[in-house]
Each structure stands twice: as structure tokens, then as C-alpha cells.
């Protein structure tokens, strides 16, 4: 049986569109995430520099600069106000051969935001 010219590829455009639409969507979301990360980085850098300049002035203090930075970040970036952070540090011996290892310890520190109660 022979197929008429072009009928073997009938419907291929739909599956090609699905594959390309998924790929384009992923690339678009990645670009948007990168743009948002750059925005947060640049905004934070600008606010920290402004606070540092204010704190370094002769008629000011470092505490005033730190407070200005905190105020700017809280007002311009969502979720960047003062938060409570829990810090946990552990030291363990590094086991090289079963329970036997060198006398030095590995220090691991972790940080997490404290949840509201």
C-alpha cells in the first residue's frame, strides 16, 4: 500500500508544537527567575552601599547606616525585614577507616529561619 504524498506527516505539527512550547516555556521561566535574582541582588547591593556611605560620614555612626540599610531593604524587598535565625553547629570526627579516623573534627554549621509561633 502506498501513501499519498505528504499524508505520512499529517498531525506532526501538533506534536512538534507541544515539544517546542514546553521547551520555550521552561526557557522563559528560567529567564524570568534570573531577572528576578539579578533585581534582588542589585537592589540589595545599592541599599547596602547607601547604608555604608551614611554610616561612614563624619556626622553619623555605623549604627545609623545599619538601620538605614534595614529600613531600605524592608521597604523595597518583600520578606527582607528583621528575622530570627536559628544557628546550629556540630563537630564530629571524620571516620576514614570505620570508627577510626584522624584526631581532627569536621565542623558543620546550619542556619534556618525561625518560624512564627
From TrEMBL:
Keywords: Membrane, Transmembrane, Transmembrane helix
Membrane-spanning segments: 20-40
Protein's name according to its UniProt entry: Pilus assembly protein
Organism, as annotated: Ornithinimicrobium pratense
Amino acid at each position: 500500500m502506498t501513501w499519498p504524498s505528504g499524508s505520512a506527516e499529517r498531525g506532526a505539527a501538533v506534536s512538534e508544537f507541544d515539544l517546542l512550547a514546553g521547551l520555550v516555556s521552561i526557557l522563559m521561566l528560567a529567564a524570568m527567575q534570573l531577572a528576578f535574582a539579578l533585581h534582588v541582588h542589585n537592589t540589595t547591593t545599592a541599599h547596602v552601599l547607601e547604608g555604608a556611605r551614611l554610616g561612614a560620614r563624619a556626622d553619623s555612626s555605623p549604627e545609623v547606616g545599619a538601620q538605614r540599610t534595614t529600613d531600605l531593604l524592608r521597604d523595597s524587598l518583600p520578606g527582607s525585614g528583621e528575622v530570627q535565625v536559628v544557628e546550629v553547629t556540630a563537630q564530629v570526627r571524620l571516620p576514614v577507616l570505620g570508627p577510626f579516623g584522624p584526631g581532627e573534627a569536621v565542623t558543620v554549621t546550619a542556619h534556618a529561619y525561625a518560624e512564627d509561633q
